[in-house]
């Protein structure tokens, strides 16, 4: 075999091997998990040992989806808003279809 051909044949695989070895080396420092200051209890957790002043203002949610909301927008006292809501209800095709059924 020719010397030039031999150098090329050994040079390319050698270069690829060196590149793969270098690419596999990580220069980043090892990751250290940061410390976390965990509270002994969260403010949402009911505390039996705390009195009312230490418990804060948090309370458990009480959903009330069953309540009828009615025309809630009338609390703003805006005639334009009332008119727009009336127009939206009149133009609502889903409500019309439900009323006919």
Task: Estimate the mean pLDDT confidence.
Answer: 78
- End-to-end span in angstroms? 92 Å
Shape: elongated
List segments where confidence is low: pLDDT < 50 over at least 5 consecutive residues.
none
Beta content comes to under 5%
Describe this structure in words.
The structure is a single chain. The chain is mainly alpha-helical and 101 residues long. It has 4 helices and no strands.
Provide a quick synopsis of the model.
The chain is mostly helical and 101 residues long. It has helices spanning 3-24, 52-55, 79-91, 93-100.
In terms of topology, how is this protein built?
Layout: H1 3-24, H2 52-55, H3 79-91, H4 93-100
What keywords describe this structure?
single chain; mainly alpha
């Amino acid at each position: 075999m020719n010397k030039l051909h031999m150098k090329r044949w050994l040079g390319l695989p050698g270069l690829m091997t060196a590149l793969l070895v270098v690419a596999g080396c990580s220069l980043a420092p090892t990751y250290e998990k940061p410390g976390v200051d965990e509270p002994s209890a969260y403010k949402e957790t009911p505390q039996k040992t705390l009195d009312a002043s230490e418990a804060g203002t948090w309370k458990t949610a009480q959903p009330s989806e069953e309540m009828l909301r009615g025309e809630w927008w009338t609390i703003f006292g805006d005639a334009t808003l009332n008119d727009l809501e009336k127009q939206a209800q009149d133009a609502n095709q889903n409500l019309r279809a439900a009323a006919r059924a």
